[in-house]
Structures are given as C-alpha cells and as structure tokens.
Amino acid sequence: MFSGGVSLFDLRTYLKKDQPIIDFLGSLKLRSIFNILILGCLTACSSSLNVSSRSDSGDEISVNSLFVVPNQLPAPASFKSIKLYATKDTAKPPIIDLNSEDQLILSFDELTDINGQFRITFTHHNKNWEYSNIPQDWYLQGIGELVLGGGQTSNSRGPDYIHYEITISQEEVKFISSGNYLLHVSDAESGQELFSLPFLITENVGELSSTSQTIFNSGNRFFPEHRLFSTYQYPDFVEYPEFDLSFAYIQNRFWSDTRFTESYDFNSPGVAKFDLTQSNAFPANIGHIQKDLSRFSQNTFEIVEWNPGSTPPKVILREDVLNFLNSGSDSIIRTYKPESSIRSGYANVLFRLDGDESLSSEDEIHILGDFNQWTVNKNSELLLNPDSGFWENQQLLKEGIYGYQYIRIDENREIDLTTLSDNSSPQVQEYISLVYYNDPERKFDRLLATGIFYAR
C-alpha cells in the first residue's frame, strides 16, 4: 500500500490502460515508497513487468486444460519454464512418499529485471481436487510458509529474466497426511497468488500392481483404447474397503482427466481388484512430439531459421507434418527440461503444422505442451498462414527439451486428443494408478498407494 491507503491496483484502475506508469507501478515490490518519488516517476519510469502480466491467468481458469485441476491457478504469461519434480527421480511425476527423505524441487523464471520475493504455501485437497477443509495442523506440522528470493539474473540474449529455484524438504516442511496437494506461489509483498501446481503425497502402504488390455476398433473413429486393471492388497486398518476405498488412473500426467473406476471386486479377503470399464477406457493412440531445443542455432536439425538480432530473438522450426507427428519415443511426457543455466536464452519460437485437405480454415487447432501447461487459451491457437500454407503459432520459449501435441477443439468445446493423431496403432502411454482411502474418523481422502506403469 502507498501512504494514504491507496493500493497499486486502485491506482492502476484510476489511471486506466493508456497511462505508461502502469508498467512501472506493476513492477515495484517495495512497500515503503514516498508519494513524491512515485509522482516523480509518473512519466519517466518504466519496467519490463507490469501488473497485468502478473494477473492475466484469471481468464484461463475456466478454459480447457489437460494439466490444470480444479482450484489450481494457471501461471501468468510473465512466468516461464515452471517445473515441480521429486528429487528421487526428476523424470517421474511430482509424487513423494510420506515420512521419507523425498524432496520436491520448484524452479521457474520471471520475465523481469527486478529481483522479487515469493511465498510458498500448501493446501490439502480431496481426491477430486476440492479443498479437504481440514485444519492445517492435520496435514502440516512443520513450516507452513517458505520464502523464496535471491533469484539469479539472466546473462543471455533475449528478454531479461530472473531464475528461481527452491528445494522443499520434508524435514523442514513436515507433511503428516497423504493425499492431493497444491503448492501455491504468491508475491511476498502484496500477497497476490500468482500460480499453483499439483503434487501427490502417498503413504506407500499395501501392494499395488497394474496391467492393461488393448481393445482395437472401439474408440473414437475406431481407434484403439486401453482398459486398465489393478490389484491392491490393502492394509489391515482398512475395515470396510467397499465403502472407504476408491481407485483412479491418470494418463500421461494429464491431471485434469483423472478417471475413477466403477468396477470393483472385494471377494478375496484383504484384496481389492478394480478396473476401468470399456466405456471409460483411455485412447491408446495418443502421440506426442518432442523437440530438443537445448541450443538455439541454425546448425540444429529442428531449426530452419535463427535470427538472434531481433528482439526477442526469433526461431523458426522445421514444420511438423500431419500424419507424421509421433516421435516414436516412450518418454515424451516424462521429458521436460527447460535449461536452468542463466546463460540460456528465450526466443519467439514459431511452430508450423503442414496440414492436408482434412483441415479447413473453420477448424480450431491448438498447440498444447510443457510450455503452456497443456492449456487451451488465446495464445495456443494456430492460424492458417495463406502465404506459407502452414498452420502457425508462436511461443516464447527458453532453450530446453519440450513435449507438445496438436489438438482440435470439438463441437462441444472440448479437447479432442485423437482426431489429429497420425496413427491408428497403439502408442506407448504412461499411466498412474491411485488408491484413495476416505478416513472414517477425519473424513478426508488419504492416498494409500500409487503406481506408474506403461501400456502400448
């Protein structure tokens, strides 16, 4: 707040969008600034970050996303290269064991030249990602709030950015309950939440095993599907498994498409069998593209044009061709590696899709990937370039390795993962199986076990 009780947001509203000071005011992170200094900067000061760039995720909350779960806040455009992973295996999903030495690592860049400070907090959620509404001391006994500052200033061509990284140790943040969690990142000065990320804490009790069955000519456009089957030997404290246990699967870490089972078998003592029915099966032919952009240079196969002299630098990628989109790798989703070095730069990267007669200018085509949280928004749509004949989209990316996919929005305004799939044969898919236990005493969902397996 400024003296007199006027906030940055009140002043921004008053001045409206045609005032250049907005860019400057939005970048300020100091609480005690005299009004005379502020007025002196009204026409002279500017910054690479503005208030709206830190707040523009609000219009994305209701849009389609393969990643963003209910109550999660998508990241604003000024925050890039966001990654949350477990230290036990950086290639695996952000799942840690309760009461273990497992750690979480959060890293991200903010596109600004002003060093900031952030608050890291945590909330517990039920299996459907609704708030569990339990007091914090039921799931957290350690430090409930971490402060992240001291970022590293970039030393590269392209837009300025500050790189931040923090290791979250269970010795410091003592989680005492399993389940679904959101990690929240807020501005330490204003308290404004900027974005949040999902992670899971499992008790790793009982024995869980899973398999798959491929069903051909059964899905959308008669593409193959995966039915999933699991067996779980549950612990003794589960007295009424048919009432207190529930089971779910996640495909390719698309958290928002968690599918719960409707078929159970508790006939064997101490053993639960569950599966996805055919009507709820996952598509088995989803393919993904992976690009190694670890170095922006015209000397790499993926890049056909590199212009380091523009602001920001510009990269034009070799076109992707419809019907030849799959990269043939079984690690596409698991490989997401924005470079952490402050020498690595950002560039405007132009993606180009060479379609065919099956695509028309009336189609709504989007690119979803690691760089936009697999979310449909105004910046993910491809437009047909009449001069080149390519469907094109530009993304501001840091050097690194990225997975992505082209999708169509169907008549129900939902993400269609299979129409642009270039293969009617099964592809390797990653699955996570989950076993939840609704604690009969405390009335919240504990996560007893998780498993990662693959199916073709």
Structural write-up:
This protein is mainly beta and 456 residues long. The protein is built from four helices and 29 strands. It has helices at residues 8-15, 21-27, 35-40, 241-244; strands spanning 79-86, 95-97, 103-110, 118-125, 146-148, 152-153, 162-169, 179-187, 193-202, 207-215, 225-233, 245-251, 259-260, 263-265, 271-275, 282-283, 289-293, 303-307, 314-317, 320-321, 337-338, 346-354, 365-369, 383-384, 391-398, 400-409, 415-416, 429-438, 445-455. Strands 18, 19, 20, 22, 24 and 25 form a six-stranded mixed beta sheet that branches. A five-stranded mixed beta sheet has the order 2-9-8-4-5, with no helix packed on it. The longest helix is centred in the first third of the chain and has 8 residues, at 8-15. The protein is globular, with a radius of gyration of 24 Å. Mean pLDDT is 85; it is low at 1-52, 58-62 and 328-332.
Summarize the helices and strands and which ones pair or pack:
Layout: H1 8-15, H2 21-27, H3 35-40, E1 79-86, E2 95-97, E3 103-110, E4 118-125, E5 146-148, E6 152-153, E7 162-169, E8 179-187, E9 193-202, E10 207-215, E11 225-233, H4 241-244, E12 245-251, E13 259-260, E14 263-265, E15 271-275, E16 282-283, E17 289-293, E18 303-307, E19 314-317, E20 320-321, E21 337-338, E22 346-354, E23 365-369, E24 383-384, E25 391-398, E26 400-409, E27 415-416, E28 429-438, E29 445-455
Parallel strand pairs: 2-9, 19-22, 20-22
Antiparallel strand pairs: 1-3, 3-7, 4-5, 4-8, 6-7, 8-9, 10-11, 11-15, 11-16, 12-13, 12-28, 14-15, 17-26, 18-19, 21-26, 22-25, 23-26, 24-25, 26-27, 28-29
